[in-house]
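debug: dumping io for the single-chain case to check the tokenizer round-trip. Nothing else runs in this session.
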Amino acid sequence: MEVGSQKLEDGSQKLEDGSRKIEEVQSEVVVETIVTTSEIEKTENLQPTTQNLQPTTTQPTVSALSMSSIRAKKEMMEAQKGVVKEVAHFPTEAFTETEMLDFWFKYAQRLNDKGLMIMASLLRISDPKLDGFNIVYELPNEGSKIDFEKEKNELLGYLRGHLHNHEISIEVIVNENVKSKVAFTAHDKFNRLNEINPNLEELKRMFDLEL
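debug: decoded output
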């Protein structure tokens, strides 16, 4: 009996020793598995990912407003291609000095009929000369030049219209040696004085004066 009991005890001891070895082996397997898993994770972290390897590029963004503006500008340019710009063409017909003198003195007479005696007289002081489309006119002093310049634009408009040439210009030169060719009559003198003093016309009617 004692021998059987001893064998049982030896068997139990062997079982315990086997169980202990199995547990130790399992522990080693678990530890090794944990270490291996940890190393794999570290290795994966060290490996470059496809996302990291891709180069970063900046794509320009175009807003809808910009595209709309470009499209509108393009449409406007296309529309302008079909527009024919109207260019004003003013007449530049040739004329002679004789024709110019004819309308020059007609204008002087027109002013005379309106009672604008100062300018009418200035236009008759000398004969204007034609140089291309430029009219050169000489006056005896600066005072007469200033009076002439005040009315020159209306004279220019008259000549350009009647001679059909919008390139006509007038150049005024002061020449103290110019002698007036105007034959002042008593009527001319009275009109000149009447411009200075309008009361002369009333005196003329009052006394029934004849010139």
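debug: round-trip ok. The longest strand covers residues 134-139.
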